[in-house]
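ugh ok fine here u go
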Amino acid sequence: MRPLMRRRIMQGSVNLEFFRTALLSLGASFLAGCASFANPGPMPASGHGSVHEILPALAEHHRVCNVVVAVVRNRKLHSIDSASGCKAARPPGPDSVFQAASLSKPLFAHAVLLLAKEGRIELEAPVMRYLPEGYLHRYAPLEAEPSELVTDHRLNAITVRMALNHTSGLPNWSSGPLRFDTAPGAKWDYSGEGYVFLQRAVEAVTGQPLDRFMASGIFQSLGMQHSDYVLGPRIARDLVPGTKANGAPRATIEMTSPVAAFSLHTTANDYARFLVAVLADQPSVDVITASPVTVDAKLDLGWGLGWGIARERDDTLIWQWGNNPGYRAFVIASVRSGDGMVMLTNSENGLKLAEPLTRRILPGEHALFRSAVMGTDVLTMLCNGLKLCL
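structure:
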C-alpha cells in the first residue's frame, strides 16, 4: 500500500490553494463520475454473477484502486468483499479505513433522531433554540477562522427537520459570509451548510465536540471500533490513501475538525453495522421515510431525515452517495427486504461501481441512478463557494 499522503489544511490561503489544485486535477474524473450514473459503461464479462464474483473485474475495468463492499441480507451482515483494480495496490481488508464523505450525513442524522427520542431535541423546533448565543459560521468548515456571527433573521426559521432533509435554504457550501439560496422550507436544495448548522446545535445540547459525542453515544453502542469524524493516529494507521481517476495518488485532506456533512472515516464493516441497526428498527425507518420532500417528481425521488428516498412500485429504498477528493462511497438498502450494501472506495472512479453492484443485491432498474443529484458535496463547494467551477 502506498504511504499515506497528507496535507494539513491550517490557513485559509492554504485551503484555497489546495482546492484550486484539486479542482484542476479533478476535472476530467469529476465529469466522468457524474456521467457514470446515467451510463456506467460496458460491463465486464463476469457482470452477471454475485458481488464476490464480479467485484475484481469491475474494479479493474473502471480502474478503482481499492474497493470494499459489505452486503446486507435480511437485515444482517452477509458478506464483505474487496478488490483492487490497480496493479500497484493491494486489496484492502474489512477493517481498512476510507473517507466516507457524505455517508457522514445519515449517521449524524441517526444521532439527531436518538437525541429527539430522548427528548433533548425536537424535530420541529428551530435550530436556533439550541444556540442561544447565536450561530458562529466558519467560512471553511475545517477551520475555526475566519468566522462570523450570523445575523440574518431567516436563520430562526430553520427547523431541525429542515436541516436534515435539505430544505434549510442554505447553500451546499459557502467560503464567505453565510447566505440563503432559498427561503427556509421552500424546496429541497442539498446543503452541507445546513448540516454544519445543526451540528453546532447538537454540540451545544450534548456539551461535546461532534467527534467525542459520536464516539461515546453512537460508535460504542453500535460496535463501530474503526470509525471517527476526525483523522487521529489510530484511524490514520489504517486509512487507505485516496487516488485520482488515473490511479495516481491524491493528496489527502486531513480532517482535523469534525464536520457532520463529510468528515467521517470508517470501514465497510463498521458502516454495515450502522445500516443493519437502521433497518432493524422499523419505528426509526418510519420516521426517516415518512413524508419525504420532493427531489425529482418524475423519478419519484425524495429526501427524508438524513437519507435519500426512492419510492418504487413495491418497495422503498434509502440511499446516499459520497464524494470527497480521492474517495467515493455509496450506501443503499431496501426497507422491505432488509437487503442492501455499503461501498467504500479510494478512487474518483468509485461511483461507477454503484449501479452494477446494486443490481446484484437489489435486482432491476432503479430510477435514482438516472438522477442528477449525485454530483455535489466537496466539488460543489469548490464551484459554489470558491467560484472554481468545472
